[in-house]
Write the structure tokens for this entry.
Amino acid sequence: MFLAGQRPTFRLVTGSRGKVTSPLPFLLFVPRLSKLSAHCNKAILGCQCGGHSSIPGREGVATLDIDTKTLDGIKVVKLAGRLSMGQALDRFNATITELLGQGHSKIILDLEGVPTIDSSGIGMLVRHLTTAKQAGGAIRLLKPSKFTMQTLKMVGLLNLFTTYDDEAAAVASFQ
């Protein structure tokens, strides 16, 4: 126990060459950083997960609306919400996996309603693009947000995807 104003003293455990071998002095400061980190992470996660949702019981959960339609034999998947790790990405994965499993390898992802995408979402896009190409198809991006375009460009993956601002042009690209 220490009195106010007293500082604890530590005896460093050293090896045969005089190097510190005990992480104890460094670990003692972790609780302070952990509180700060937890506070920052909570704020970040609250922002990424949709913050306060208007749906009761869905607070802090990212939602993603998915609508699928067929135009000239091409599947068009319209997304609305954040494409980020969690339930939203799980639903997206299940939808695209089901389409690819049914033999629909030509897919247009309408991203107009997707304001942000995280690294997990990008990884999922690339994974499904690879699967679609192996099946003789492709995935085209329709109306991706500026943020999505910048993110794909920043990580060097924008060149993998063909993007369109017009649905008819995207559908015609598969003909």
About this structure: The beta strands are 64-71, 74-81, 106-113, 138-142, 162-164. The two ends are 77 Å apart (CA to CA). Residues 1-48 form one domain.
